[in-house]
Fold:
Amino acid sequence: MHVPARRVVRGLGLLCAAALSLTACSSSGSTAASGSGDASAGASAVQAALAKGGTITVWAWEPTLKQVVTDFEAKYPKVHVNLVNAGTGDKQYTALQNAVSAGSGGPDVAQIEYYALGQFALGKSVQDLTQFGAASLNGTFSPGPWSSVDIAGGVYALPMDSGPMALFYNKKVFDQYKLTVPSTWAEYLDDARKLHAANPNAYITNDTGDAGFTTSLIWQAGGHPYKVDGTKVSVDFSDAGSTAFTSTWQQLVSGKLVAPINSWSDQWYKGLGDGTIATLATGAWMPANFVSGVPGASGDWRVAPLPQWQAGQNASAENGGSSLAVMKASANQDLAYAFLKFADAGPGVQDRIKGGAFPATTADLNSPAFLNTAFPYFGGQQANQIFAQSAKNVVKGWQYLPFQVYANSIFNDNVGKAYVSSTTLAQGLKNWQDASLRYGSQQGFTTG
Amino acid sequence: MTVADPPARSRPRRSARGWAGFGFTAPFLAVFALVFLAPIAYSIYLSLFQDRLIGGTTFVGIANYRQAIADPQFWDGLGRVALFLAVQVPVMLGIALLVALALDSGRLYGRDFFRITVFLPYAVPAVVATLMWGFMYGTRFGLVADLNHAFGVTLPDPLSPHLILASIGNIVTWEFIGYNMLIFYSALRVIPHSLYEAAAIDGAGQWRIVAAVKLPAIRGAVVIATIFSIIGSFQLFNEPSILRPLVPDSVTTSYTPNLYTYSLAFSGQQEDYAATVAIIMGVLTMIVAYAFQLRGMRKEA
Structure:
């Protein structure tokens, strides 16, 4: 990729005079990426790099990686890992994009969420890992996360964690109002009505419009709104899966049955603790957040499988989850890949499970020790069994847009209207679809 | 400041004087060029390109300007700040003027206390002020919620989409009344007292003095304060940007032109188009501010 000098200070525009004297061509920074895809040669180069040692920089916000770095450095004393928290999610992606454009200043390894990986793979900012033999790790990871890193014939990251969805519910509230744990979204709607009628301050859940949540439920319902084929993208929120979501969720929103509280706000934690938010349908990474964010409600909450769109089905979806990728501009890619393998498919996985992370590795998901872990917070429930089952039931074939980071940033501009005005969810999604496609064609994609 | 008469010219060599002057101003010019002219030139340069995920960077001439002129999101944002300007600025300056006149009247008990109290909100950083108001506006746990509970009423939600602009106006008014008051008050303090005495001898009451002496005397300060406020309104960014995480459905990513350029550059990776929108906004702001200045100064003359 040719990067003209003018992009060196993109987004800043202050140091332009200095910038003009720089020339940057990001591809020149990479090591001998032969491109031959010779996996065994790649693997031996990785071993050689570990023996030789060196320093790599990792940008990640995942807290459990700290222990992984300690253990990695203990095992390979010549290697030094510089773990940097460059911000969570969007903030880090902005910094990463700037570093990629500048051709320097970026990390060797970056944490990238699955929904955002496509954007970096397409921009050729992250290295295809097949040359290191990453393709052979296919069976190591559960299918959902793997399909997210396996993009157009390349493997652009290794899955770090995953977020198969489940329904977290406040058992105390359910018992008090004699609600049954819903097995379908229709029953969920009934519970929502019953609960709110019995206690006007209580809501089945909170929702103010969340792109990740909405797309995950459409994913579960079997929708495929995004179709990506190389540089051809299409968006269609009128398919059966999307319609199944909007017809049920519209009733929750119109009936004011969802609390108008933003997730991760102080009000939200308060609501989860005092029973005014009765359920959360979210990813398996949630328990650690319950323990740290809502300690007072320990013992109140339980985990159930995600309600179904049709009775008797066993469909699930992913919500959140991240991968670790090797940056193309890294001068130490062999070492970077060694760290990836250690953290995501090696001894690092155990460190991370101990720290409360939900792994993406099949062996750990199936290990009795993992499955039989009792969660004191959930009254001793073996919640991992539900999460692991959910991971197996993730509907296959879901795709995100190659510019999903931007699309999600304008979700509330469009779909958010449905939560605060008479606009319907279906109309909001249609507006989001149009805005996303408009951006896509501005960015040079063929849209249709 | 004293202005000395120019001494008799000793006729130095012209070129030497020219170089000496340049030598004195060079440090300023260098910094001025680096931090002021260069960013503007760079923005203009950026605005002539388009950088795409597929296809990379291409020179597109004035295509970005064409796109911006036809961009409904840009015009929506501009319309919003124009409405803000038309309503909030007169209210804020009116209150500031009233307070300044009251302080200056000499009839206020505890004048120094009021002066510092009214000025105090300006000393609160905009980020803190906005967060504080954001909490107060809350209908679940904030001041509005407490009022609802205490009086058994349901006040309209200040953070709902159709009231949020007024709520932002309230925050900005609260923040900047003290600042504008101080401009007016200091202008009032320099009016010679002999004018008041002359007016009193002519039989003018306090209101007459305000209308005939004080207001005409501080016209310049009012024009300056208004120009600052026009620029401030067009550049509205802090308050909506900080409220956005609290109410993402009410404050869109293109709520004001500045917020729009920010979103374009940092989440959309469209720095070129963001630069275009910023330049158009800058030119529009200059036109409006200059037009107002011409009008204000002409009346003064």
Summary: The interface with chain A takes residues 34-35, 38-39, 41-43, 45-46, 49, 51-57, 138, 140-141, 160-161, 245-246, 248-250, 252-254, 263, 265-271, 275 of chain B (CB under 8 Å). Chain B has two domains: 14-46, 71-300.
